[in-house]
Amino acid sequence: MAVRIEVLKEDNRTRARLGKLHTPHGVIETPVFMPVGTQATVKTMTPEELKDLGAGIILSNTYHLFLRPGHELIREAGGLHAFMHWDGAILTDSGGFQVFSLGDLRKITEEGVEFRSHLDGSKKFLSPEIATQVQMALGSDIVMAFDECTPYPATRDYAKASLERTTRWLKRCQETLTTTDRQALFGIVQGSMYEDLRKQSAAEITELDLPGYAVGGLSVGEPKELMYEVLDYTVPLLPKDKPRYLMGVGSPDALIEGVMRGIDMFDCVLPTRIARNGTALTRYGKLVVRNAESAHDFSPIDPTCDCYTCKNYSRAYLRHLIKADEILGLRLMTIHNLRFLTNLMSEIRAAIKENRLPEYREKFFYEYGYLK
Ligand SMILES: CNc1nc2cc3nc[nH]c(=O)c3cc2[nH]1
Fold this sequence. Notes:
Layout: E1 4-10, E2 17-23, E3 26-30, E4 32-34, H1 47-53, E5 57-61, H2 62-67, H3 71-76, H4 80-84, E6 89-93, H5 96-101, E7 104-108, E8 113-116, E9 123-126, H6 128-138, E10 142-144, H7 156-176, E11 185-189, H8 195-206, E12 212-215, H9 224-234, E13 244-246, H10 252-260, E14 265-267, H11 270-276, E15 279-282, E16 285-288, H12 308-312, H13 315-323, H14 327-353, H15 357-368
Parallel strand pairs: 4-14, 5-6, 6-10, 10-11, 11-12, 12-13, 13-14
Antiparallel strand pairs: 1-2, 2-3, 7-8, 8-9, 15-16
The chain binds the ligand CNc1nc2cc3nc[nH]c(=O)c3cc2[nH]1.
Ligand ITE is lined by residues 93, 96-97, 147, 149, 188, 216-217, 219-220, 247-248.
């Protein structure tokens, strides 16, 4: 079954859309934040807990699963859904980004990327064909094309050569898939921070009439304002009747700003990663629970939050667990941060529905401390 978006409403003052993403493993309301489960687990969460938190789609990484335990073992297990006991939707990133940011990069050629595994230093090779075959073995619902996430900053010449290779690689991914499986393949627009190159990449990628499109090459160290500027001129180049996915984003403010610019799907490791080192997301900004200020604070992280952690535990207790390296601390902080984000996204969807997204943004940014 094809992956498709049903756009229910287009905001009248911004580019935001309310939608339903139809996948072989369920229908997901958009805009949506996808928790990241890099190694076939959203760290410290059981699938049942993820469902309770409101997650309907998670991200997993081809690079990591290719290196360990290997896609053949997961195929043997009946695919990633069976292997990890998750019956919701799964989107897999293709590995290109992870090779550049994790592996000991050896060489990029037209054929693919040679690299050393970050696990044991052994030589590995990923190509559009291999990355696509791995994702099919995993049985993922949304397959990301194997691309080069153009590093930032990049010269115009490098960015142009890189996007053109990404387009050639996308066509090779498409050719690797059967016609039915092609309905799961999302293309990724590159072009770094050059408007004309983004136009070129978007034109080349959308010509292939894919089920969805990602804006890549962002959240790679550029200032947020520059990311928003690139979105301002890139998102309108993507078809309105297809899902738009901003890769690697993000923080609450970036989620709102991305939705305002027409993005439907987001993923980011930040919320779960900062949770594990004791930082909680709240509507008033970040709360570093491990700091001394919480030592005698017997109130919850956020009294307005409906999560299991905020209903049952104090900041003082969470600070103790984190400082004592207690595993329960990792779990309780993760539960809170994921629930915060699924609540944020449902508030954003309600604001779009009721034509009050700009007002919601103002209120959120003021409370969150972004507007002094
Ligand atoms: C955390 N930031 C971030 N995560 C990304 C993942 C990506 N995957 C494929 N292609 C990308 O361009 C890409 C960009 C990204 N930025």
